[in-house]
Specification:
By secondary structure, the chain is mainly alpha-helical. It has five helices and no strands. Helices cover 80% and strands 0% of the residues.
């Protein structure tokens, strides 16, 4: 009889353990599903931001002309198409330095995250061009400078429009 009671007690304890482990497993599965859903949303957001950055970069490259200027809040970069490679390269370095300084300014600090990333990406690409040797076409440097300037111009114009809208 004592053996029977012990066997029943062990079985009851085992069943209680199984019930507890099932409850814990269900809670873990729910947590896993929530984490998976959050991760999916974060991936979708990152993909959207990547697409926006690519569009900004493409727009900056497409809108780049022979000269680019910024408003009074941003750097002004004038590049003549007939410049020599060395001159265009030096002016690209100036554009990089101006953009870095602008990022550190109040206007640059107020930029939205995806715009800052687009500008930083353009600066990084331009910096790699400066380090690269053997580039014989000044247009390569001009396009990179225009990409940097276009991002700053667009952000500056948007900020000016927002300020004007706020005043009205």
């Amino acid at each position: 009889m004592i053996a029977f009671v012990l066997v029943v007690a062990v079985l009851v304890a085992a069943i209680a353990g199984l019930i507890g482990s099932n409850t814990a497993r269900e809670a873990a599965q729910k947590e896993h599903a929530q984490l998976e859903e959050e991760l999916t949303l974060q991936i979708e957001q990152l993909e959207q931001e990547r697409d926006e950055l690519q569009a900004l970069y493409d727009q900056a490259i497409a809108s780049g002309g022979a000269s680019a200027g910024a408003t009074s809040d941003g750097p002004t970069i004038e590049i003549d198409v007939d410049d020599t490679v060395a001159s265009a390269r030096a002016q690209l370095q100036d554009a990089i330095d101006s953009a870095k300084a602008w990022l550190d300014s109040d206007a640059g600090q107020a930029m939205q995250g995806h715009v800052r990333l687009a500008l930083q990406n353009a600066i990084d690409i331009a910096s790699r061009l400066i380090e690269e040797s053997g580039i014989a076409d000044p247009q390569t440097y001009i396009d990179a400078a225009n990409a940097i300037t276009a991002i700053i111009d667009e952000e500056t114009a948007e900020n000016a429009q927002e300020a004007q809208d706020a005043q009205q």
